[in-house]
Design brief:
It contains 17 helices and 20 strands. By secondary structure, the chain is α+β, with helices and mostly antiparallel strands. It starts with 6 loop residues before the first helix and ends with a strand.
Length: about 550
Amino acid sequence: MSDKLHPYVDEARGQLAKGRISRREFLRLATLVGMSLPAAKVLAGCTPAATATQAPATTVKRGGTLKVALQIPAADHPARFSWVTDSNVCRHAYEYLTITGRDNVTRPYLLESWTPNAELTQWTLKLRQGIKWSNGDELVADHILFNFKEWLNPDVGSSILGLWEGFLTINDVEVVDNYTLRLNLKGAKLDVPENLFHYPAQIMHPSFDGDITTGKNPGTGPYTLLEYKVGERARLARREGYWQNGADGQPLPYLDAIEYIDVGEDPAAFISAMQSGQVNAISGYHSNTPEIYLALKDDSKFQVIPTPTSQVRVLRMRVDVAPWDNNDIRLALKKTQDRTKILNTAYFGQGVEGHDTHISPVHPEFAPMDVPAYDPEGAKALLSKNGLDSLDLKISVGTGWTDIVSYIQTMKEDAKAANINIELDSMPNNAYWDLWTETAVGVTPWTHRPLAVMVLPLAYIADSEGKPVPWNESRWVDEEFSSLLSKAQGLADLEARRAVMKDLQRIQMERGSVGIAYWMNVWGFASTSVKNFDGHPTGYDLWNEVWLDQ
């Protein structure tokens, strides 16, 4: 990473000195525009970061198998991953150009550094030299170009398209030399490093066979994928010659193997697997399960590590399907959410109330606003305005997400006062995964993203042909919203970005396609024998340095 001051860093340093932004917000901005974290901390007046997760060399123990509870889903092309769970098994074998830590700071990973120009329209990416694929090939820039071609190919159908829509086509990706690429953007864009850690952006070798689960594809990660059986298990084994060393000076990982075991979707099965010793950790994908939290939080045999996040349950309505093409009807349904009641009932109060906008109080650019009130009379008035005495609807829910079921059951009872009759269309989580973009009304889990300008392009814009991007499950596209979002994506100044976000939040609240009742805290779950373990706000299993004390 460069320690040369980008113009935005100097500006942000002035805002920090005046108390207009926090140290954490300064660190996030400085690192995003290419400054190394240690240098940014010096500018912010921070003391060096503690390294509590780095085990002293004398205490590290090598060997053993980490056994992890996780639902094992069907998967093929990583660029088409729709869920964090798809990526968590494979991320141990296939890596990313960048990495965003628990602290929401993004750092280089397969990249050595990135450098944007002053306008944030050109980003130079430099690879670390000497990284070897598991087949012995060296990682070079042409390999990264192969991945950009996959990500930006509409026929692949990747959500990554939404992140780059209007900013980057494959013709704008330039290979400078064996270890350098340049992204020549069509407009200013701040979140480039964080887009490179979007979970479908796992880096694949150009020989990729189209199915990541075969175990035949070379990877740069510390493990090799040996077995992947949907609904049963996945196994990974340590490989030799990994490019990162551990605290003992030897190549990582410390473990011999990681085994993921599918225990189904019932939280009781996860709890039983932990308490019986069948597994010694739970995948981060299930870190937002309150039943597991309540069962393990006071047991000294387990670590329960809390993390505030922008993880959320999104009640979304397809605006291309009647009656949800009528904003009054969408607003009427949203008004039947008693957010405090829903949070306390569905998630035991472990989070904060939402505002019907997919911008979280955790996001640095969030503009504070009042929580919408439960208003059944207002909902009835909107129905009456449209000639309706009542409204009947079904809401699709995955039963393994027990808080979602509780959310909609609570809403069902409260909606009766507005003459809105809700029926739960209940199904296993796997069945919901199969139709999450198709059902007319459903509640979809969305994971954490560190910036709002990263999540909004995934779900609320159209592509260059005017079609909703792959993850725009509600089909909602608003010209003013899209224009303001494009502007916000190019604003490094936090105050300026927050001013635009205020309008984006208002638009989504007033005429958007989603209801958001609450934002979620999450937890990391592991036995105390698992060392160097930590939770992650996005539910990622970042376990290269985990070891077992047993």
